[in-house]
Amino acid sequence: MSKVATRFAPSPTGPLHIGGIRTALFNWLYSKNKNGSFFLRIEDTDKERSKDEYKKQIIKSLKWIGVEHDGDEYIQSKKLDDHIKVANELLKNGYAYKCYCSKDEIEEQKLRAKQKKIPYIYDRKWRDKKEEEAPKDIKPVIRFKSKIDGTSILKDLVQGDVEIDNNTIEDFIILRNDGSPTYNLSASVDDHIMKMTHIIRGDDHKINTFKQIQIYQSMGWELPSFAHIPLIHTLDGKKLSKRDKASTLDDYSQIGIMPDALRNYLLRLGWSYKDKEIFNLDESIKYFNLEGIGKSPSKLDMSRILSMNEHYIKNIDENDLFDQLTEYCKLYKSEIEADKKDKIKKSLTFLKNKAKTLEDIFNNGQYIMADEVNFNQDDIKLIDDKAKKVISDFNSQFASVDKLSKETLEPIVNGLIKSNDTNFKGVGQPLRVALTGSKFGPGIYDIIISLGKEEVTKRLTNKKLV
Description:
The protein is mostly helical. The protein has 19 helices and twelve strands. The strands form five sheets. The protein has a three-stranded parallel beta sheet, covered by helices on one side. Strands 4-5-8 form a three-stranded antiparallel beta sheet. Helix 11 packs across helix 13 (358-364) and helix 15 packs antiparallel against helix 16 (406-419). It is elongated. It starts with a strand and ends in a 6-residue tail after the last helix.
């Protein structure tokens, strides 16, 4: 048997959709599991809508999530002569024919089908007519001569046997009247040229697969195996589209979802292996198989993505987490200043507490990154005379502390609780507002230690608090 070869074939007509990412991931994992090759084909034949910026975004998105293709990208538009050559061969061998129906005729057929509430299928008017009958003023399209009788069975590696009546597949166009090839012809020829062994794609392509199989058979080519993955739906059961919020990788990257977490989530979206939830990259490759793909659509659940991301934030190496946070801030927020980096890195242990995204860590660490305290207007109202006394008393005693630690700070806080006849909140809250601008945030000891002695003193004597 040939070495396994799979491909992902997006059109560069818009940003890569999350469903496309999962399809690419499944193809890549299947190839890697079988020690095969994974290729990227850019289907750029729609010249008006195809843009180089989208091609770059597709490649960048795949790389971000850890999916890298073998060899150079295969550019479909450079292979059009091969597609046209096959169309002419099918025509010559009686597997295709010229159709001279005008646009008006086709529109009329479609209208009649709509009125009868049946799917439109071209009526095969020119299938058996002779060339002499052709009108001189119409440029023909070339249609494939689909099978009319019997049934066809697709042995799908995910869906099982799928049977269809051949007469439901129309004589589809393979060359338009301007001489350009259509999707089903181009995809079939490219898959043959690329020696694809497995075509793994969304189950909205099933009817295309039946058409493409007939092209393969007519050309006498060896058929690849087909696997159709159920589509991704929204939580309310609708097909996920590019217009949906959080449908592209950029949407996830911007809120600070990490690539490993999203890849793990997409792997488990419609695929399972025993009761295992967390897969590192090596495990994903080792365990991936087509048998684990379910037959029903999967629902994209943002709360599950956030939960998966939180798991990765808690469990990855803090050096790696810091690198990802630094890159995230550089791309979407403001770059962490050089003199603040060490403080942030040392504070990650508590800054990541309860954080579901890199954005949460960024927000938790704002009090360290900011040069000046940005006070929440409601929270600064909590700094009444009693609170001001707590801050002043703390600052006086803090001056004599040499080494900052919970052990050196706790006696001061406990003393203030006693002398001010209050509780821990009565001391901790004014200090937190004074140091971070908000009553919410990390524990007070963590805040003080992370800022350092000089910065704490500077903030506690802020004129806005006096």
